[in-house]
Design a protein that fits this description.
Order of helices and strands: HHHH
Radius of gyration: 12 Å
C-alpha cells in the first residue's frame, strides 16, 4: 500500500509530458518508436527522458526505504 502511495506521489511530481511518456512505456507497454511518433520526439529523446525518469523514481524509492 505504501509503495502505491509513493509511486502515485512520484507520478504527480512529474511534468505532464514526462508522466505520459513514462506511463505509455511502462503501463501501456508502447514501444519507443510509437511514443516518439505520437509525441513528435526523436527516439533518443524518449529514451533519455525515460532514463532520467527511472533515475528519479529510484531516488524516491531509496529515500522512502522501499528499495
Amino acid at each position: 500500500k505504501q509503495l502505491a502511495l509513493v509511486f502515485n506521489r512520484f507520478l504527480e511530481s512529474l511534468s505532464e509530458t514526462e508522466r505520459r511518456v513514462f506511463l505509455c512505456r511502462y503501463w501501456y507497454l508502447d514501444s519507443i518508436s510509437d511514443i516518439s511518433n505520437y509525441y513528435g520526439f526523436s527516439e533518443s529523446k524518449v529514451t533519455s527522458m525515460l532514463h532520467r525518469t527511472r533515475k528519479k523514481l529510484r531516488a524516491v524509492l531509496v529515500k522512502e526505504d522501499l528499495l
